[in-house]
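call fold(seq) -> tokens
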Amino acid sequence: MAAFESATAATLQLIEPLGPADAAEDAPELHKGAVTKAQTEWQEAARLVKSAIRNGEFRLYSQAVQDLAADVPPFRSIFVRHVEEENNMLPPGGFFELAEEYGLMSELDRSVVSGVLEWVSACRRERAGWRPSLYYINLSRDTISDPYFPEFVQAQVAQSGVPAEALCFEFLEPDVTALAVDSAELVRNLRSYGYRTMLGAFRYDKVSMEIIKEMHFDFLRIEGSLVYNLLRSEASVSKMRGIVRMAHAIGINTIAELVESRETIDKLRELGVDYAQGVAIACAVPLHELNQVATPPI
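ret:
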């Protein structure tokens, strides 16, 4: 992956300024050359991202989402890391910038769906009596705008034999705000097939409330800064209490992310939050190692 590093690093370098004498004479040609060079480097980087997606160079990870009211197995958040990110050779999330730049996020989302279903299907074949949990997958803006995504998921689920209720798809609030019509249509289509849906990065403001009124979600994942400040701010406690009351009134479960301490877990329970996710619950692990890792009781 040295070529990937080179192409990525090259795109982040600043073009050195021209000297005064050179600028007047050579600016047009130098500018053209710099643009052409940058385009070539980005195209090479995009080719390498495509190759990484198609050659399985992204690793699926999972983090437990624990029920705070019942002693039941957790469900799972799913996300991806590039192998070079794992080895600290690529900045965290660095490949997303390239994938977004070249419209490849939808392809990456599809590969995540396929990878999760393949893993679940393999577990069911290899372990007698094994039952899948609920796995939630974040969707990019590219996928939200893709009218063929529900049919793709249906085909993958039919091929794998995994029940639809094992999958939940997360929409981030800023994406829903930017793509309201596409989001509403995709939520409606996915739910009609039996999949569950989640609104992530929920902030409990006027925009959030309008979204909740227009679309039906099964879960709200509450924005992390609010969770972080629960033990530091009475205003955050009051806001969290309002979110929980509103969500429960309309039949939606709440999830607190970035939970970092036992004290925060206790506070969330006191406020009636349904689920918690974060290092105080469990660290993220590679999906293929999931059955080797026990989630400690909380």
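Residues 20-54 form the longest helix (35 residues).
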